[in-house]
């Protein structure tokens, strides 16, 4: 099994991930108040997704995460799409990111290419709770066994891997049982690999209440898990979470938390200041705490990733 993250980090001190996709799509006029969330745009305006990926690469991202977080056979079936149509949309999510990567890279001159890694495409694998579209990815406690979670994820993993992604981004996972189900699947699929990223509620615990350090230790034996960490988490929790897993795993640590704004569930809006330089300063601290892959999740933007890139890789 080739490990694209290992190869990238062998040449560079860190990898910069992209930021929020949905936030940028909304900023460009998309209405994502829909159970499909950003996957809705795969149907309606796929070229907008391409544009966002391209802008993140231009901002300095080394990895694009595809628009497949909420793309599942079950969710598309509720929209009246059959298995073949759903699989084609998942393929399209990967192709849009790959085309943006290739066009961006080919537009650089040789000197520019020498200063940064050739970017990767990670196919997003959202949690079971994302398909339910009821916030379960921030609670966990699914009424499913590990084997049932494997059965849910297997068809989508096979489609996304066949679409040509460099790796999988198994993200916003609220609990160890789902992470282990995905790790077992990747270990069983030839040449599959990906990262595991938990949503977390505190400086030590994932959203289901398990210690992140216990989760990291439990995933250490799975060779297909090429990085491990957290996303969709309040940035103030990140230093404590990183310290809690120091020395627990030999796998690279990744973090891509939210911007720091607070979500108002009653009014369905975000509050708080947005400051790219402040986010970049926090990212510098996360790097000192051991993170090797750093990006952004909800409410982050290309401006934030550009600030992170300028701070952590100024020569680029």
UniProtKB/TrEMBL annotation:
Which Gene Ontology MF annotations are present?
S-adenosylmethionine-homocysteine S-methyltransferase activity; zinc ion binding
Protein name in the entry: S-methylmethionine:homocysteine methyltransferase
Asked if the record carries the keyword Transmembrane helix, the reply is no
Q: Which domain of life is it from?
A: Bacteria
> InterPro entries, per this entry?
BHMT-like, HCY_dom, HCY_dom_sf, Hcy_S-methyltransferase
| PANTHER family hit by this protein | HOMOCYSTEINE S-METHYLTRANSFERASE-LIKE ISOFORM 1, ZGC:172121
**What's the cofactor?**
Zn(2+)
Question: Which amino acid positions bind Zn(2+), per UniProt?
Answer: 232, 297-298
GO BP term (any one): methionine biosynthetic process
Which UniProt keywords are present, listed alphabetically? Metal-binding, Methyltransferase, Transferase, Zinc
Q: Which residues form the Hcy-binding domain?
A: 3-312
Any matching Pfam family = S-methyl_trans
């Amino acid at each position: 099994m080739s490990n694209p993250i290992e190869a990238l980090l062998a040449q560079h001190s860190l990898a910069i991930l992209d930021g929020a996709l949905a936030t940028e799509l909304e900023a460009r006029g998309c209405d994502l108040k829909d159970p499909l969330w950003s996957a809705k745009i795969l149907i309606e305006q796929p070229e907008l997704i391409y544009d966002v990926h391209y802008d993140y690469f231009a901002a300095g991202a080394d990895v694009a995460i595809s628009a497949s977080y909420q793309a599942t056979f079950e969710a598309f079936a509720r929209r009246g799409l059959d298995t073949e149509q759903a699989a084609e949309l998942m393929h399209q999510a990967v192709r849009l990111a790959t085309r943006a990567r290739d066009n961006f890279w080919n537009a650089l001159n040789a000197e520019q290419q020498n200063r940064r890694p050739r970017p990767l495409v990670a196919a997003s694998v959202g949690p079971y709770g994302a398909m339910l579209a009821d916030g379960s990815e921030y609670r966990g406690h699914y009424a499913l066994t590990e084997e049932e979670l494997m059965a849910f994820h297997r068809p989508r993993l096979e489609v996304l891997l066949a679409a040509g992604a460099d790796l999988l981004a198994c993200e916003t996972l609220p609990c160890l049982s789902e992470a282990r189900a995905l790790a077992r699947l990747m270990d069983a699929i030839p040449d599959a690999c990906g990262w595991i990223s938990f949503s977390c509620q505190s400086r030590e615990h994932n959203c289901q209440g398990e210690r992140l350090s216990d989760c990291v230790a439990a995933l250490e034996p799975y060779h297909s898990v090429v990085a491990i960490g957290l996303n969709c988490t309040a940035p103030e929790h990140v230093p404590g979470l990183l310290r809690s897993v120091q020395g627990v795993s030999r796998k690279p640590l990744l973090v891509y938390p939210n911007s720091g704004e607070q979500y108002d569930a009653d009014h369905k809006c975000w509050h708080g200041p947005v400051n790219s330089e402040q986010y970049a300063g926090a990212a510098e601290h996360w790097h000192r705490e051991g993170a090797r892959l750093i990006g952004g999740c909800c409410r982050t933007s290309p401006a934030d990733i550009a600030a992170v890139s300028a701070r952590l890789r100024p020569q680029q």
